[in-house]
Write a structure and sequence with these properties.
By secondary structure, the chain is of the alpha/beta class. It has 8 helices and 12 strands. It folds into 2 domains: about 150 residues, 3-Layer(aba) Sandwich (Rossmann fold), CATH 3.40.50.720; about 110 residues, Dihydrodipicolinate Reductase, domain 2, CATH 3.30.360.10. β10 and β11 form a beta hairpin. The longest helix has 17 residues. The radius of gyration is 20 Å and the shape is elongated. Keywords: Amino-acid biosynthesis, Cytoplasm, Diaminopimelate biosynthesis, Lysine biosynthesis, NAD, NADP, Oxidoreductase. It is found in: Cytoplasm.
């Protein structure tokens, strides 16, 4: 039987790609497309909005239809609604929204006590593989003579509202845990002085329609290693989220991440 999936924020940029790809996946059945009632396209067919033709699924703010998983790829306010919908429906939750406040994060952790939750700042397969590579590099370089400096550059489209990206922050968190780094800064200006070893610096670039790229720099004395992961369109994120929904449906309550989905 196909996994029944609901999309939260279905009229957004990522929501549209989830609809477009989800309706083509024979192992999935899209059963609900949620949006807030004040959205200008509320009530319209989600397939038409996504550019794939009429699907008979209109933008709604509630449903009695049962579903196995709900995917949220929206904004923090939308994420809050997705958590409530998932818990009420006893459905798995795939949380891909970034820029969450601590109150939203607390709600997600609380929900994981009663439903399965896949929570990750990036649903991309290659981003999560790169995170694993960064952990290996950080472990190997943490005690290198002369020290290793870590800088993270991220580039996204001009419409992205949070900065730095949740993915960049996750890269930094993983590396800091391996290397024992406690200081995180965002950009530099003026005369900050010599760079201390105990810091990770983040640099956010916002240009055009860039769907996302991250470069992690490990700078040593005499050599440098850079790991770069780059998206050419948003489908990599949507595909990963749909894969996560199939993984999470029917799982026991708890917090999962993309390493669980990918078997890393």
């Amino acid at each position: 039987m196909p996994t029944k999936v609901a999309i939260n924020g279905a009229a957004g940029r990522m929501g549209q790609r989830l609809v477009a790809l989800g309706c083509q996946d024979e192992s999935l059945e899209l059963v609900a497309c949620f949006e807030y009632s004040g959205h200008p396209k509320f009530g319209q067919d989600a397939g038409n909005i996504a550019g794939v033709g009429e699907l008979g699924l209109h933008l709604i703010d509630h449903t009695d239809e049962a579903y196995d998983a709900i995917i949220d790829f929206s904004v923090p306010e939308g994420a809050h609604a997705a958590v409530e919908r998932a818990v009420a429906a006893k459905a798995a939750l795939v949380m891909a929204t970034t820029g969450l406040e601590e109150e939203h994060k607390a709600k997600i952790r609380e929900a994981a006590n009663v439903i399965p939750v896949v929570w990750a700042p990036s649903m991309s397969t290659t981003v999560n593989l790169t995170m694993k590579l960064c952990e290996i590099a950080a472990e190997a370089l943490k005690d290198v003579p002369g020290g290793a400096d870590v800088e993270i550059l991220e580039r996204h489209h001009r419409f992205k509202e949070d900065s730095p990206s949740g993915t960049a922050l996750r890269f930094g968190e993983l590396i800091a845990n391996k290397m024992g780094i406690t200081r995180h800064i965002h950009g530099r200006e003026g005369r900050p002085g010599a760079r201390p070893h105990d810091e990770i610096a983040y640099h956010a670039i916002r240009t055009g329609d860039n769907p996302g790229e991250h470069t992690i720099i490990f700078g040593l004395l005499g050599e440098t290693m850079e790991l770069t992961v780059r998206a050419s369109n948003r489908d990599c994120y949507a595909s990963g989220a749909l894969q996560a929904a199939k993984f999470a449906a029917g799982k026991p309550p708890g917090l999962y991440n993309m390493n669980d989905v990918l078997g890393l």
